[in-house]
Design goal:
By secondary structure, this protein is an alpha+beta fold. The chain folds into two domains: 110 residues, no CATH class; 131 residues, Winged helix-like DNA-binding domain superfamily/Winged helix DNA-binding domain (Arc Repressor Mutant, subunit A, Orthogonal Bundle). A four-stranded antiparallel β-sheet has the order 1-2-3-4, with helices on one face. Helix 6 packs antiparallel against helix 10 and helix 7 packs across helix 10. It starts with 12 loop residues before the first helix and ends with a helix. About 12% of the residues have low confidence.
């Protein structure tokens, strides 16, 4: 059984020129199933690609000349990746890489993917996890697990931003979630504690603690239920509504900045939203 090599940085001409000449290509793990390779010889370089076909085996092909030694006459890193993905999608034996090839198959060889910078292709923490598993278990497609890891990481980063918003509001994240739950029920809207802990997916003890904290901050107050005077409701005070509105504005503005910076369009987000809805429904 072949062993997947460590991933080598091939993204810049300088990095490729610095590689010692050898008889075999240096490999960069583009995905667990598709690898981009660079052959560094004494007289020049060349790009290679390969796809994992199962049982520890790969199908390999030459993609084109390198540009590091030829003054830019050959393929750049981005164009070599595009060529790899196009070949992986068109090669009958490379069906394992078809999922990777889908975005690139509509682009001509030599044209880089839109809005993708080389710096964004460098391995990060989550990429390193995927690469480690690709080396240890090349028989398993870790792409799906990596995809869900990114969702988990996105939630973690978003939660950190919400924590900062809560800190600016002078309250805790848990308390802020209660304020936002009450606020989205309308101005002057009231909720039962049991409805709150069910909606926020916390225990009754946790919601009691949060309500006590918010009462102490004068952000909520008690209200009697119209249908049952013995049933306790809670609602926002004017100050509580102001805090909730300001926090929601900050969260919305933060998300808008993230989307604008990322370059992801509304249409892409709608497709992602629909896909996530279907995945969640299947869980």
């Amino acid at each position: 059984m072949s062993v997947t090599p460590s991933s080598i940085d091939l993204s810049s001409p300088e990095a490729r020129i610095a590689l010692p000449p050898r008889a075999k290509p240096y490999w960069h793990i583009h995905s667990p199933r598709t690898h981009i390779g660079y052959y560094r010889g004494s007289r020049g370089g060349a790009w290679y690609g390969r796809v994992f076909i199962g049982d520890g085996k790969y199908r390999q092909t030459k993609l084109g000349p390198g540009d590091a030694e030829g003054g830019g006459a050959g393929l750049t890193f981005d164009s070599a990746v595009a060529a790899l993905l196009e070949w992986a999608g068109a090669d009958p034996g490379g069906a394992a890489g078809a999922a990777d090839a889908a975005p690139a198959a509509r682009r001509p060889i030599g044209e880089s993917a839109p809005r993708t910078k080389v710096s964004q292709l460098q391995p990060k923490r989550l990429d390193a996890i995927s690469q480690a598993w690709a080396q240890e278990r090349p028989d398993i497609d870790f792409w799906l697990a990596g995809f869900f890891l990114r969702i988990e990481h996105a939630h973690y980063l978003h939660d950190r931003r919400v924590q900062e918003v809560a800190k600016q509001a002078g309250t805790s994240v848990g308390d802020l979630h209660v304020l936002l739950a009450l606020r989205r029920h309308g101005t002057g809207g009231a909720m039962r504690p049991t409805d709150l802990y069910k909606e926020l997916l916390v225990t009754s003890g946790a919601i009691t603690k949060r309500l006590d904290s918010l009462r102490g901050q004068k952000l909520i107050e008690r209200a009697a239920a119209a249908d049952d005077r013995r049933s306790e409701l809670v609602k926002l005070t004017r100050r509580g509504q102001a805090v909730a509105d300001a926090a929601m504005t900050r969260i919305a503005q933060s998300l808008e900045r993230i989307v604008k910076t990322s370059g992801v369009g509304r249409a892409e987000l709608r497709h992602m939203d629909e896909a996530l809805r279907r995945l969640i429904a299947a869980m």
